From TrEMBL:
InterPro entries per the UniProt record, alphabetical: ASHA1/2-like_C (IPR013538), START-like_dom_sf (IPR023393)
CDD domains for the chain: SRPBCC_CalC_Aha1-like_7
Species of provenance: Maritimibacter alkaliphilus HTCC2654
SUPFAM superfamilies on file: Bet v1-like
UniProt xrefs under Gene3D superfamilies: 3.30.530.20
Family affiliation: Belongs to the AHA1 family.
Name by which UniProt lists this protein: Activator of Hsp90 ATPase homologue 1/2-like C-terminal domain-containing protein
Domain Activator of Hsp90 ATPase homologue 1/2-like C-terminal positions: 17-144
Length: 151
């Protein structure tokens, strides 16, 4: 087993109020649109219960073979200001990584300052760490595009 750890923070400005950003972040239909990091990938919401102690279950990966399962446990939600949750990524019965994630949605004059803080432990090496960071970076960019271009 090859354990590795990484921590990263993404801070982004969004031209929308925190309530609108929160809604897009937690809406399963919106999440299926903005979460895939590329057009060749898919993000399917299987279970969705975003509340203190609630859980989520998602399947993701290439459209041709979305074999990754993400189990989410929500620890604390403070709508529309902040959320803390953990995620475990699996392929079949094999755990690949576990992450602690916090997101703060702070009101600004221009809309919202989103701060995403992720601490990940990979059980399969550095590639999973790079994939986690790259996936979140692209997904948050997609979220911003989704919100700012909504009609």
């Amino acid at each position: 087993m090859s354990l590795g750890n990484d921590r990263f923070t993404l801070e982004r400005g969004i031209a929308a109020l925190p309530a609108a950003v929160w809604a897009a972040f937690f809406d399963p239909k919106a999440r299926a649109i903005w979460s895939p990091p590329s057009p060749d990938e898919v993000f399917e919401v299987l279970e969705h219960d975003p509340r203190d102690g609630g859980t989520g279950l998602h399947r993701c990966g290439p459209k041709s073979d979305p074999t990754y399962i993400v189990e989410t446990r929500y620890h604390k939600l403070d709508e529309p200001a902040a959320v803390s949750f953990t995620e475990i990524v699996r392929k079949g019965d094999t755990p690949l990584a576990a992450s602690q994630v916090s997101v703060v949605f702070a009101a600004t004059e221009a809309g919202t300052r989103l701060t995403l803080d992720v601490y990940t432990t990979s059980f399969v090496g550095d590639g999973m760490l790079a994939g986690t960071k790259g996936g979140w970076t692209t997904s948050i960019a997609n979220l911003i595009h989704h919100i700012e271009n909504a009609s």
